[in-house]
Design brief:
This protein is an alpha/beta fold and about 400 residues long. The chain has 13 helices and 15 strands. It has 2 domains: about 140 residues, Alpha-Beta Complex (Aspartate Aminotransferase, domain 1), CATH 3.90.1150.10; about 240 residues, Type I PLP-dependent aspartate aminotransferase-like (Major domain) (Aspartate Aminotransferase, domain 2, 3-Layer(aba) Sandwich), CATH 3.40.640.10. Helix 3 crosses helix 10, helix 4 packs parallel to helix 10 and helix 5 packs across helix 6. The longest helix is centred in the C-terminal third of the chain and has 21 residues. The protein starts with a helix and ends with a helix. The structure holds pyridoxal-5'-phosphate.
Length: about 400
Amino acid sequence: MVSRRLRELEYPIRDIAVIADEVKKQGKNVIHLNIGDPVKYDFKTPAYICNAMARAALDGQNFYVDSLGIPELREEICKYERNKNSIDIATDDILVTSGVTEAIFFSLSALLENRDELLVPGPSYPLYISYSKFFDGVPVEYRLDEENGWEPDIDDLRSKISDKTKAILMGTPNNPTGGLFSNKQVKEIIDLAGEHDLVVISDEIYDQIVFEKQYSCPASYSKDVPIIGMNGFSKAHLATGWRLGYLYYYDPENKIEDLKENIAKMARARLCANSIAQYAAIEALRNPGPHTDEMVVKLRQRRDYSYKRLRQIEGVSVINADGAFYLFPKIDFKEFPKWNNDKEFVVDLLRTTGICTVYGSGFGNYGKDHIRITFLPDLDTLEMVYNEIEEFLK
Ligand SMILES: Cc1ncc(COP(=O)(O)O)c(C=O)c1O
């Protein structure tokens, strides 16, 4: 009855929650460190943004809006991207979506069919893999080098470009590693895409959640290589549940005009993104508050604490995160023969302690032997979590 396409769809970050629910039913308190949702912790959607949303609803902005997004919002996004990232785009290059999730869905729907290949970072955010397969494409992982701060291995990437490759996807700061690609590597990826006539897809959802290093937008390194950039309001503006994001086309030589027109068709076919959230987003962009910077300050302390505790555990190694809110420690299963692999480990940790993390193999082949753990909770919760993990490993 059910299509192969859907039967094979996986999203491990939420699939693990099914076991978490079982554990909860048995009366255990579950601590969710599997989902990157700051609003579930002590980071709250700012009141002035919530008020803008409520005002829009009370003013009657509750109808279907333009499929490409409300014109004022597209203009604000365009101004924001131009100012922040010094990239030459116009309002017409912006498409408002239901989160970056839909932006990924739209782009891959337009690019992939008949086993076309998409180069994705390995380890990789699971949706890149699932949606590639959904559209009958093949996700090909290029290695991120853990020994080198999770930087992309450009030789590996080059060796994996084939006649079937359609695009190179990058996500920096990266989920699950927390690594920020260096400017040199970003430029090399764009140059490679240029040599092979490929589109670059750039997931920029964590661009404002960066600690010591400086983020630069990949499109600012491209002269003529077309880039589909993606960002949204979930993380930086603490509005995960509102489902609002956008994509922009950086395409100075109009190489992907056809792609753009066809993605617009896809947008029309799904009517529009959430209307009142778009009014709130206009407010968020016109009057940026201190919430993002304040979140980054808190997250840095929580990252430092988590990193320190993980490093103290024998048999566990970890690279510190440059951005986002995840650490991706490696577990040496020779030290811990009780578990055969990361999935067994994560399930046992969850059933024994109630701590819910995600198994690294859910992030593709390069994720195996790792777990992804978010450092979003407050320091008291993190202290309790790491005490429990230490005890569990003993
Ligand atoms: C790398 C990455 N891209 C996209 C998303 C989804 O973002 P949105 O809420 O805008 O759909 C996430 C969510 O965790 C993410 O980590």
